């Protein structure tokens, strides 16, 4: 398992959500953007990931987690609805056989529809669903003399989280599922900061 420096980010930002008992008046409409990071984990078995990458019957194991970096830009039309474009670097899960390592460089970008439920004091719950254009590049080989398969596609992404707004500042934590393939599904937990214009 890799130690991801982004794992500390949710723990660092979460206390900010509770630092102000009464948020300054916040207008939940208009353009916003943000950046964040966290943790990603492939939810499939070693054999499923190997099938996805074309590893065949090689004797390998999968290091299935890594850190995430993401950015997003969105527009809130009213307190209950927004659209959001995103880019996510989902890290490099590994297939490992002896001293041979294959990095599965995973990235995605796309567009989501976001439904929001305003709460008190600047908090809101949100859920999102959309489509992601993704690609997974296999770098290296398992000592068999041939490289493994690169993959790409367009598939669903969905998630939910909580956001806090204070003046123009946004702080959010969220869970997302990137449903790339039946053999390669990735869950992420991230924390982000943003700015609403």
Oligomeric grouping of the chains: single chain
User: So what's the CATH class?
Assistant: Mainly Beta
How many individual β-strands?
10
Question: What Rg do the Cα atoms give?
Answer: 19 Å
Please state the average pLDDT score.
Answer: 86
What is the percentage of strand-forming residues? over 45%
Q: Structurally, how many domains make up the residues? A: 1
What name does CATH use for the topology?
A: Porin
CATH architecture: Beta Barrel
Q: Name the poorly predicted regions.
A: 19-25
**Structural class by SSE content:** mainly beta
H-E string = HEHEEEEEEEEE
Proportion of helical residues: under 10%
Number of helices: 2
Largest sheet: 8 strands, antiparallel, barrel
How far apart are the first and last residues' alpha carbons, in Å? 39 Å
Tell me, what's the shape?
Answer: elongated
């Amino acid at each position: 398992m890799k130690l991801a420096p982004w794992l500390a980010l949710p723990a660092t930002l979460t206390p900010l959500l509770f630092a102000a008992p009464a948020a300054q008046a916040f207008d939940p409409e208009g353009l916003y953007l943000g950046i964040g990071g966290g943790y990603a984990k492939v939810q499939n078995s070693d054999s499923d990931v190997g099938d996805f990458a074309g590893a065949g019957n090689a004797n390998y194991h999968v290091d299935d987690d890594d850190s995430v970096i993401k950015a997003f830009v969105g527009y809130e039309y009213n307190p209950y609805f927004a659209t959001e474009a995103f880019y996510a670097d989902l890290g490099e899960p590994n297939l490992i056989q002896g001293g041979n390592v294959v990095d599965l460089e995973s990235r995605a970008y796309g567009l989501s529809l976001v439904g929001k439920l305003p709460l008190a004091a600047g908090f809101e719950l949100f859920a999102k669903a959309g489509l992601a254009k993704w690609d997974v590049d296999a770098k290296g080989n398992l000592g068999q003399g041939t490289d493994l398969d690169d993959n790409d596609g367009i598939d669903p992404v969905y998630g939910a989280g909580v956001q806090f707004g204070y003046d123009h500042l946004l702080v959010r934590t969220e869970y997302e599922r990137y449903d790339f393939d039946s053999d390669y599904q990735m869950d992420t937990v991230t924390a982000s900061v943003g700015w609403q214009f």
